[in-house]
Each structure stands twice: as structure tokens, then as C-alpha cells.
Fold each of these.
Amino acid sequence: MRLIFEDTAAEPETCLEAVKKLVELDGVEVIVGPATTPSMLAVAEYLNRRKVPIIAPSASAIKISEEGGPYLFRTVPSDDLQTAALADLVKSKGWKKLATFVLGQDYGIGLEQGLKENLEIIAPEVEIVKSVRYDPEKMDYRSELQLVKDAKPEAIFFATWVEEGYVIFRQALEIGLDEALTFGGEGMADVAFFDDPSTAEFMTKTNMMGTKPASPKDRYYYQQFYTAYKETFDEEPSLYGDYMFDATMIAIMSVAKAGVYDGEKIKKAIPAVAEHYIGATGQKAMNENGDPLLAKYDVWEIVEGDEGPEYSFIGEWEKASGISWK
Amino acid sequence: MEDKVWAVAAIILLIGGAVGGYYGGTLTATPSEESVSKSDYDALSSKYEALQEISLPDVIKIGVAYPLTGPIAPITLKIIKAAELAAKFVTIREASPGGR
């Protein structure tokens, strides 16, 4: 058995070329990846046409369920569940005036729209006083941040990645946008943000909270993964590492279940394997879109720890029961 | 079985079956995550391992399309280690010549 790695560089065009190389030169009939939603959407038409399934461990936007097609699967839950969790968080905190500041691509826009739609259902009294979809190429966001500040929100929803986050949060601190509270999705739950002192200061001062897909850390299955990972690599698993593990396991087992190395047959095997598979991230039974049926989210906040800022897990969200605070 | 085309192989899942509870579709009901204790799990894993002699393609290739360079590579290079770990969890043992 071989894993064949191809670099997508987190760029949709590069990802498509990488996937074409895997399929056409390496003869691969099942793929794990890619990392982001634009990359996943960029390869969808090609893989559906070539009948090669792909299992994504970290691309979470709602649009993939809507437009991806039959050969796209995920171990990470769709953001439609995460935005329900985020709306529950807003409601439970009693925030009435929000602003949103999101990456102007499918990931950020999907989170923004999903949050708004869920709030309209469960908390229609909440007012969105300002929405910004930022251009990741711009790297100067002071005018947009000032508009948010002028709207005087109680809380600001951020969806960004680390690289732009450093700039956004540094500039937010510069203009004094640190009186509102802040919250975000799983993209904000990354310790890499703390590598920049200004970013760490902003996130801590604004008591940033948020959600991230939960791993069943108290369960035997996760603990086996965690122990093996730590013993093998002498480090903690990263965000999405457990989803990558499950995606790869399901891919391997689906080849075994198909009994033949053929993308169309492997694609048919994936839902059947997932139906019975309980992995590091829990049960992986899939819906008709190839997304996990069940998902839990951790609710986190940033606190000042003994050695600097850290993520503290303060609750858990499930669709049926909402947030259970610890 | 055509030995040149197929290898009769057994997937041995190294740590307690799989890290997850895949039961090869041989059970009539899917155990819920909550309902499986470790002892139940170990018992099922033994049963599962015995049932895992299956026909496999002679080559299994899993493509991993993920960022190895670029702005998020510091994060993604850690994530792909988990794919390597999954591959290590599974070993494929060829059966004796002629199949079982």
C-alpha cells in the first residue's frame, strides 16, 4: 500500500493540477484531501467526470454539499452544523448587535450566511449592524475595521486564517477595536495565532469564543489515535489531524471493501464503510451528500494561562441538545 | 483465485482492530459509540480480525492532495502526518501461495 503525496499549495488551480497528476500519471483511484473549500470545488467537476472519489478532512463549507457532486465525501462536518452551533452561542450569550468580518471566499461567506440564517430562526431579535467580506490579497483592513467599530457591535464574528488574521487583529488593536467581544469558528481555534503578540493580545482582550468540531477525547477510539500519534511523532495532533486519520482509514477500507482498485466501485463502498466505522472523530455515517450525519462541536474561549493565552474548552454543542456548558 | 491479479490478504488492524470500530459489515447492527465498552470492543475486534481475509487488489494507492508548501503549510504538514499514521495502522499480509 502506498500513500502518494501531491502538493496543492492551498491554491485551487494548483490543487486541480495535483489531482490530475495523481489520477493520470500515478493511476490513483481514491484521494484524501484537499485542505480548503475552494480547492475542493475546483476539483469536483474533474473527479466526478473521471469517477474518482475524494474524502476531505478539513474543507467544511456548506457549498460543497450543494455543488460537490457524488464523488465528494467528507469526514469533517459541513458548516451548516457549525453555524447552528454558533447561533446557539450568540443566543446563549444574549448578544443583540453583531458585526461579521469574514474571508470573502466560500468558507467565510458560507459561515456568515449560515450564521445569519440560523439567527433568523432562533434569535430574530439579533441585529447584524455591519458585515464585511475581506479580500485576502489586500492585507490592509483598517478602513473596513473602522466601519465595524463605528457600528458599535456588542460582538464581532471573525472567520479568517492565521496569515491574514495576524494583520487583521494587529490593525484592529491599532484602531481600538477591542471593546467589543469576538467569536469565530474552528479556523480561529489555532494556537498559531498566539505566535504574534499583537494578535494574541487582541484575541485575549476581546475574550474570543467560538466553536470547533469536537473529537471524542474521552472515548477509546480517540485515545488510541492520540496515543499512537504522540508516540510516533512526539507531538500533539493538530487541528484536523484526527479527521485526516479517519479520511485515510475510510479510503483504505473502502478499497478493501470494493475488492478491486476502481474509483467507481470504491465510491460505492465509501458510504457502506463509513456507516460502520467509528473513528478518532466518532461515528462517520454519511448523509446523501457524503457529509457526516452526526457532529459535536466544542465551545471554547481564550483565557490567559500561566504561559500565555490558551484555548479553554467550556462547553459542547449537539444539534439535538444545543450547548451543554461545562 | 487468480494469484497474479489478486492477493488473498488479510488486513491486520494493529491497535485493537482499528482505531475505529469498523466491523466489516458482518454485524446486523452498528454498535453505537456510547454502547461499546473496551471489553466489548476487544471481543468484537477478535471476531473482526478473523473475518478479514478478503480479496484485495495487488496495489492500493491512496492519493493525498494537501498543501505541502504555501502559507498554511506549517499547519497542514502536521495534519498529513495523521495520514501516514493511518497507513501504519494497516498492514497487508499476503496469504500463503494459492490462497486460503
Amino acid sequence: MAIGVVTDIQRFSLHDGPGIRTTVFMKGCPLRCTWCHNPEGLAAAPELIFYPGRPPELVGRLITADEVVAEVLEDRIFYEPEGGVTLSGGEPLQQGPFALDILQGCKQEGIHTAIETSLCYDWSRLEAILDWVDLIVFDLKLADEKTHRRYTGVSNSALWSNLSRLNATGKTLIARTPLIAGVNDTAEEMERITAKLSKLRKLLYYELLPYHPLGTGKYAALGRAAPAFSSPSPATLNRLADIGRTRNLTVLISGIGATAHE
Amino acid sequence: MNNFDARIDRLREKKLAQTRAKLRRFGPQDEDDYGSVPPPEDFTWRCPAADSTGAFHGAKAWGQNFRSLMEHHPVYIDPDDALAGRWMFMLSRMRPGNTVQRAPFPFDYSSLHERQGLYDVRSGIGKDAHFAPDYRIGLGLGWGGLKAKVEASLARHAADAEACELLEAELDALAGIRNWITRTAAAAHAMAEAESDPDRQHNLRDLAAINSRLVEMPPATFREACQWLAWFNMASRTYNRDGAGGQLDELLRPFYERDLAAGRIDEEEATFILACLLLNDTHYYQIGGPDRGGCDQTSVVSFLLLEAAHRLRLSCNITVRVHAGLDEQLFARAVEILCLDRLAYPRFSGDHALVEGFARNGFSRELARERIALGCNWMTLPGREYGLNDLVKINLAKVFAVAFDELFATGAPSTEALARLFFSHLDRAVQCVAEGVNFHLDHQYRNEPELLLNLLCYGPIEKGRDASHGGVEFYNLAVDGAGLATVADSFAAIEQRVEAEQLLTWPQLRHAIATDFNGPEGTRLRQLLSRSDRFGQGRSRGDKWAGVITERFVSTVRAVPMPAGYKLLPGWFSWADTVRFGRTVGATPNGRHAGAPISHGANPDPGFRRDGALTAIAKAVADVQPGFGNTAPLQLEIDPGCRCSPEIIGRLLRAHFALGGTLVNINIVDAKKIREAHRCPEKFPDLVVRVTGFSAYFASLSPEFRQLVVNRILTQEDRAADLPTCAAETTPQEALV
């Protein structure tokens, strides 16, 4: 049974896939998105975090996949009909064998499984877990390879090839884009991203996630400088959403299918 | 805007003005708002039957005083209202020495005082109401018929002194009520003559005619039935607060169907009349749920009641009984209105666990289905059961504190030794409660008979015996434990930090508790203890202890011998006593400061998990159900920005009930609004929160109580600041239309 490092396990999660879910935040991520809102999830090892007025706390705990599954099963009765477990991060597939054991354990208990992943890695990692995952939620941060590398530290070329192979498997997918003002909130980015998305066979929806500053306090507590970003205006959000909608995609803004308030 | 809508709007505004006036005149009220209005400034009245101290007891004095109060009660008529009358006084609270903690009682129980004080027991001795009438008796007989019934019984019991005193007092009560209605009808008539607006004049003439008839006759129409219920409610409130309603949809359905068939009413008018009934008072009503045979009772009237509450948008205590056969549309609409109005109605009860629990007392499931939600936390058989519901409480945190103090005098301390001491004191506390309940049942009829509720019960009038003294069929007495999470978390903290991890010693713990975590070392230890395993986390030490304590509490309460087959039904409920109970308890090993409130009902303490998962709370509370028909309510605070759709809330409710839950109260309040309302309550005169089983205008609560509600909502928010977040966590309300 694999052991892994998680930063937190959140029950009653309504943000990470359909229905009521338990989200397992796994520690460690190969990307370094400059706007990241979970900086405590970047390093693979447990680390100390210093919140003002509180004793230092250890972020990240070693836990067996069995223990994670037991925690997931606590809310089994609440998952019906479409909820379940979501592995998030960090990048869950940074801890491939651990993720696999959790997914297998949950599937064997009849729990719906999902992962939130960057797809920026070798196909073999994804292939190893495919039989045990019902839904793959992936991020499309930037279509342009150079800009992607500039803002996340890695190329997106693996993402595109993984996406087309995933599409061939017929897996259910959700695509998301964190929208950062001045970085990726342009019509050109949106055209390129949605052109790719419109070719997917089983895309449930495409969700736009305007940048939020909820993670900034954590940067200070980790002794790092918080990034200074802002969200696009509601008017921009609506314009970008409409680009996706003209390609017949179901586009949500922060979970809602309505127009942003101007 | 049609006529009904405009009238409701005016009635609502007037109600909010009256609530503000009550606050100005009487100060904060940490309880239900009720439907009362302030009496005229110059109104004076004195009990005619009282001793030199103002005290009174016994049926005769209560009958005379109540009759006089009714005969002097100001008349209240609003030309917009479908129903006449408002109540203004509570006779029971006019007695000297009456407090929420202790009722006047002219019989000596000083032998219990030492234990009652030691364990902070709310004994229920001398407490009143908290069981329910069966309105069907009154709707069938009317005030005239009730009078004839009492007179006939009096004639049969001429040689029975107890019966004669009671029944003569009942006649006094009836005479007083009839006088009040007669004067109201006359006033409506006079107002109609003077009214120039034709619509208002028409309404006033209707009110005059309806109430003239109702002095004697049983109600014949839907509106008359609602007016009759309002009179009983107002009279019963005036007598001793009462507040228990009934299965309102089923009570009114025959009247509605008759009027509809005769072309006398339509849905719009019926909704308006129901809104006026809900405005008249905040009585507890159940809707939906199974009948005796298990068939769902949902009717068009159930829906109209929900719509009436939705239209009125004021404090309201409707409970939807959720069972396997519940009309799906009623359930969906109920949850939708909870989310739309954000005024903490309706509440939801879980039929399966309630029926199975009550049946474990040896009663049939048919009977159990008739036992319905008519109070803060309680179920009762209308007209058939006496219960002291929500009146008898044991402060488990105090029992724990007694055991903790004793621990260090008895040798080597250990969690096991502490648990032994705690359970032995719990046994003593429960024994003390049982003795108090029996003492109350022996004497209460000579202190404060239930003159109003007796009228709508099966037995008291027929037998000439008060409901508290053998008048009714069933005596199932509720005993609630309070402070479960405080105690479970305290045991867990000691077991984890002192014994398993050895991060502090017993003497260090003792010193920290004795000094209320004073100084830097105290602060450090408090942080250590308060971040230990909590009840509600799931599979934690706190959960284990909550289970152990529940099991022991239930078995202790069930084991106490009671005379005449009376039963004690264990529950977890603190009502709004968390503040008062907390004041008597020093610091506790869960990191709670001396004097701070104890935990709320059966809920985990706020901050029990970093994510505050509602599923975790729902599961934890389901896991500690005592299971004999008394409840352990689940209190949920939901932030409207958390994507918690009506469908999700519906799933939470269904799952909680499937796990064994009995009753759910939900506040949907956004943190920003509650913080602002706490700072400037007067800016939010119509913000209603469910404090516990009851709801109240937030602005009418004392600052201390407001803080309590605020803490429940904000502690979680503070805890959540350092959580990993999903990129999608922007509050949708802030971004979207």
C-alpha cells in the first residue's frame, strides 16, 4: 500500500467536479504557475508554515492510501447520485502509485473518481490510472507554448498530445482556464483554446475561473512574496465566455452558466 | 400589485415596526419573537387573585386571574388583516420570581437543591406547557361547545374536589376568552361603521360577523377556522407562553376543500389568510409527513402554507416531516424557499428515526407517526401526551468539571479514572433529574394547571384532572443533555495530548485549567489542547468519546425507575442555554475558557474541522442520536456563496435522515451580512436567524446572543483562510447576476 503526502482532505467540496465530493489535495507540483493560489502544494515534502499569532504548523502529512480511502468513505452516503472523490493538488500524478492506490480503493467501493491535473507530463503516468478514473478535469492555462513556459515553468506540448490521446479513450472531461488579467484574458488565447476544445468528444463543460487572491496569506506564511495579479473585468469574462459559446461549448464562469455581472 | 399583496406588505411593515417598538421598550429578548405586540403605554392591570407578594397558585387563582386579564385585554384589529386580535401579555411571567432558569413553585424541594446546583440541572419543576393541544377538539366544538363539555363534566364530578376546582377554573378561562372575542367583534363592527375605504369596511364587517359567530359556534369556513386557531393560540400564549401548534395542513384541509367546492375561496385568498395566521403568531406547525397508516399527508394546503410563509417573509416555525413517501415537489419547494428567503424556515424532521426511536419505547409505529414536530426540538402526540419537553436539562460540562476537580484527590489521574468519575456523577445528576420530574408531576396541578391546553386534550376535561396530573394518556418526559462536544473534546484532548503524545503532564493540565490558561504557557497549552482531535472530524478520538458518552447517557436515563410506567426520553439539546450553562463552568480541557458558552446542542464545536464540512457535521450529529423519539437536532449554518444549491441541501437532508437524524435547523446567512448586522443591528430589522429550535429577529437578540450566532458562522470562515482552495472559489454572487 502506497504512502503519500497530502496537504489536506476536504469533505463537502462543491468546486471540484459534479455533486458533493471529497477533495484530496496532494502535495508536490511540477508547474510553477506564477498566480498559484495553493503555494503550500508546490513542494513535494512537508514544510513548516508560519501564520501570525499561531505556533508553526506542518503543511503536508504522510498518509497511506488506505487511510485516504477510509476518509473518503466517511461521506459515501452524501455522494449519490454523481458526487465522489477528486484528487487535486499540487499535481496528483506527481505521486502516481499513491494516486493509483486511492483511485483503485475508491472504485472498488463504487465511488465516482475524478482527478484535477495539468496533463503536462508523460502519457505513461496518465495511462497507469485511466482504468480507475471516471472524470478528468484539466487546466488549459495558455495555448501558446512559449507563454505557457514563461508563466508556468513548463512547456504545454505534452498537454496537447495527452489531450488528443485522452479524447480517443472516450473519457469524460472538464476543461478549465484560470483567467488572469494581462496574462491570458485575450480573445486570441480564447480562440486557440476553444478551437482545441471544440474537437473533444466528451467534454462536459468548459469553466472560466477568474483569478482570486485567496492564496495570498499563505505566501506570507511560507515566507514568500505573494504574486500581484488581478481578475479580468466582468465584461471581459463575458466576452471570452461568448467566444467558447459560439463554438457550441457549454461555458461556465466560476460554476455558473450565467452572464457575469457588469 | 393586487389587493392581497399590498395588504401583506403593509402588515409586514407594521410587524417590523412592532418588533422595533418591543426592542425599545423591553430590551433584547433572547427567545422567539412570538406574535405579541406591545400593550398601550397607559395600560395597567393587576392580578385579582394573588397574595401580598403578587404570587398565585392553584387552579382557582389561575382561572380568576386569566379571566380578568382576558376581560381587560386590549382589543386589536388591523383593517388589512384577515384575522382579528394580537396578544400582549404572559400571565405566567407576571408571577414574582419567575425566571427562565426557575419557575415559582410553592412546594419544598430543597432536598434536591444541592445536586441541582452541583450539576447545573434545569429540573423542569414548576415549568409549564411544552406539550401540544389537538386543535381538532376545538375546531369541532367551538368555544360554546367546549363550555358545554366542561359544564357536563363538572356536573358528573360534583363530589370530586380536585375535578371541581379544575373545571370551575376552566369555565373562568373560557368566559375570559369569550369576553375578549365578543369585545373584538363589537370593536370591528364599530370600526366598520367609521371606515370610509370600502375594501377596509368590507373586511371589518367580515371580521365583526366571523367573530360574533365564533364566540359560540365552531368555525364553518377556512377563514373562521384560521381565526379560531388564532384565538386559541393568543389565549394560550397569554396564559403561559405555550406555542405548540399542530399538523396544520391536515387540520385546515377539510375547511379549504369545502370552501373551494362551494366557490367561497381560491388559492390566492387562502394563501393570504394563512399568511395572516402565520403573522398572528410563530406557533410550531408540521406539514407533510405520514398519517397514522404511513400515507403522505401532503395536500394543496401544505403548499399554500409554504407559499404563505414565503409571501410574508417573517419569523416562522414550520417543519416539513421528511419520510420515504413525502411528496417530492413539497420537499423541493420547501428547500427552495429556505434558500430563497434565507429566513431559516422551514425546518425538517426525519420520520424514520423518530418513528423507530419512539417505537423502541414499546409503542406502535402507527402511534409514533402521530407524534409530530411542535416545538423547538421536540415531538409530541397532540392532545394525548405530557412531556416537559425542552424543559429538563443536564449541563454535562458542569458534570465533567465536578469529576475533573475530584480526579486529583483520588490517586493517580488517568482518562479512564476521569471517565469513571464522570459517569458516576452523571448517574447522580440523572437520578436528581428523575426525582425532580416526579416531584413536579406530584404537585404541578396545585401550582399551575394547564387550563388552556387541557381544553384541547383528551382526558383532562373528561376526568377532571390536569394534564400534569393524570389527565392525559401518555407521560413521556424529555431529558436533554447539553454540552456533548465540550465534554467529548475534553476527554479526547486529554487522551491525546496528555496520555498518548505526552506533550503535557497532568499537573500542567490541572494548573492550566485552574488558571484559565493564563500567561504565555497557558496560551501555549490552550493552543495545543484546542487543536487536538475533535468530535465531528470523523473517526477521531472526539467522535469516539461522543459515542461513548451518548451510549452511557442514554442507558443511564433509561435505567432510572419511574412510577406508573412513565418514561424518560433522552435527547441532546441545549436550547439557547449554551451561554447560561457556560457561565457556571470553569475552563475545560478542550481549550474552552472559563465562563465561555458550552457547545451547541448535538453539534460539534465550530472549527472542529478546517473545512467545516457540512457532511461531517451531518454525519457526526446522526451518529449521536439517543434514539428513543426525543431528538438531537442538527444545526447548519450555510454560506450562500458556497455553491450550496437547493439540490445539494436536499441531498444533505436526505442523507442525514437516512443516517438516523431527527431534526434539522438551517440558517443561510452570508458572513459579511451577519458581521455587519452584529455591528449595526438596527440596519437589519428583518434579518431572522434560527438561534436554535426557535428563530428570532437578529436585531432583537442581546449582544451576547448575537455573538454566539456570529461565532457559529464566522469561526468556520476564519478557520478556512489557510485551506487549499480550488481556483473556482470566487463567490458566484459577487461575480454574477
